[in-house]
Amino acid sequence: TMHTIAQLTYIPLATHNxxxxxxxxxxxxxxxxxxxxxGYLSSTVIGEPEEVFKLIKETYEMMSVEQERFRFHIELxxxxx
Length: 81
What we know:
The N and C termini lie close together (6 Å). The chain has helices spanning 18-29, 49-66, and strands spanning 3-12, 35-38, 43-47, 70-80. The chain is of the alpha+beta class. It is elongated. A hairpin with a 4-residue loop joins β2 and β3. The longest helix is centred in the C-terminal third of the chain and has 18 residues, at 49-66. It is built from 2 helices and 4 strands, in the order βαββαβ. The mean pLDDT is 90. It has a 4-stranded antiparallel beta sheet.
């Protein structure tokens, strides 16, 4: 089956404690059936396309409700077959 690879970079713009927010984000991502590779500035998620896109949508919605201003960079790599 095909796997989608998405590199996610979350940048809180109005906080004094970005580390805590990034930790919250990682805990949120752990709920999904994807492989997560945590890097220094971004995390990569690998999984079935439907699950990856659901994760992106729900993560954005969660951050929109809970956080102040942020940037959420999503880079999609060509799929692994």
